[in-house]
Specification:
This protein is an alpha+beta fold. The protein has two domains: about 1-80, Multidrug-efflux Transporter Regulator, Chain: A, Domain 2 (Orthogonal Bundle); about 90-135, no CATH class. Helices cover about 25% and strands about 30% of the residues. It has four helices and ten strands; from the N terminus they run ββαβααββαβββββ.
Length: about 140
């Protein structure tokens, strides 16, 4: 799951807070995609369109039906969507969908917010990287 020595960031399929809390209630048993979606609180199509192509652990029986173990799904979601740390000289480009090296960062401040502005070296998009927020001393 690496691209140019950087981990690929999954942007589609992220769960909100209440959905993440419902993951803890999944049992160590096999669920159909519709049962799993109902338990966690999302549309069953998300399993077919996002999670299975992204590598969600699943099994197919003799009739071609998909079964997903609840415990394995919970662990996969935690690993696949964990928060990634960027280097101090990196910013996240929403066009390229990956962390990129900041080129000629310009330090700016607006009220209590201090940030860097730079351009993406790949696509030229203007990127902002927040350094500090809150009261300055």
């Amino acid at each position: 799951m690496k691209e140019n020595d950087q981990p690929v960031v999954l942007l589609s399929g992220r769960l909100n807070g209440s959905q993440k809390n419902r993951l803890a209630k999944l049992f160590d048993m096999k669920y159909t995609p519709s049962e799993l979606a109902a338990e966690v609180g999302f549309n069953p199509r998300q399993i077919y369109r996002v999670y299975i192509p992204a590598g969600c652990p699943h099994q197919k029986d003799q009739r071609g039906r998909i079964w997903i173990n609840g415990k394995d799904f919970r662990e996969w979601v935690k690993e696949a969507y964990k928060k990634r740390k960027m280097g101090t000289n990196q910013a996240f480009c929403l066009t390229c969908k990956k962390p990129v090296k900041m080129v000629n960062p310009e330090r700016k401040s607006s009220g209590d917010l201090v940030y860097y502005l730079c351009e993406c070296p790949n696509c030229g998009r203007v990127l902002a990287r927040i350094i500090e927020r809150g009261k300055r001393n």
